[in-house]
Amino acid sequence: MIFEVKMLDQVDQSILRHLVENARMSIKEIAQQVGLSSPSISDRIRRLEERGIIRGYTLDIDPKALGFPLQAIVHIRPLPGKLHAVQQLIEELAAFGECDKVTGDDCYFARLYIRSIEELDTILNKIVEKAETRTSIVKSQPVLRRPPPF
């Protein structure tokens, strides 16, 4: 499979940097910062969306502010014949904030948002018949999710 390289000029890079910093920044504000007209910025953003570079705009919600003081990273290795059942369970349980399907000994690396260790046990007990797990509690996040370099 050949991947298309999506080159960005300096103006597009600047627009992306502003949007990464504040996705609610107005077209007018970005235009002032970049030194182009608002219609030019709107057109460039539309093209970045059409090219699939900008996939969407999201909220950054603090799990702690919603009562989830703990996060756990769980390595999940489905038992033979249980791969699809495990994936379905991960997709259905709201505590799983994100999950990557990976190569190697484990099939999934997942991030859970939890209120307590007891809640973690309850969630893992739902998986134990279908998979082996290894769990680490997150102490801090020195690097929050960020976009790839551009």
TrEMBL record:
The keyword Zinc does not apply. Coiled coil: none annotated. Residues 8-69 form the HTH asnC-type domain. Keywords: DNA-binding, Transcription, Transcription regulation. InterPro entries: ArsR-like_HTH, AsnC-type_HTH_dom, Dimeric_a/b-barrel, Tscrpt_reg_AsnC-like, Tscrpt_reg_AsnC/Lrp_C, Tscrpt_reg_HTH_AsnC-type_CS, WH-like_DNA-bd_sf, WH_DNA-bd_sf. It holds the Pfam family HTH_24. PANTHER family: ASNC-FAMILY TRANSCRIPTIONAL REGULATORY PROTEIN (PTHR30154:SF51), LEUCINE-RESPONSIVE REGULATORY PROTEIN (PTHR30154). This is Lrp/AsnC family transcriptional regulator. It comes from Roseinatronobacter alkalisoli.
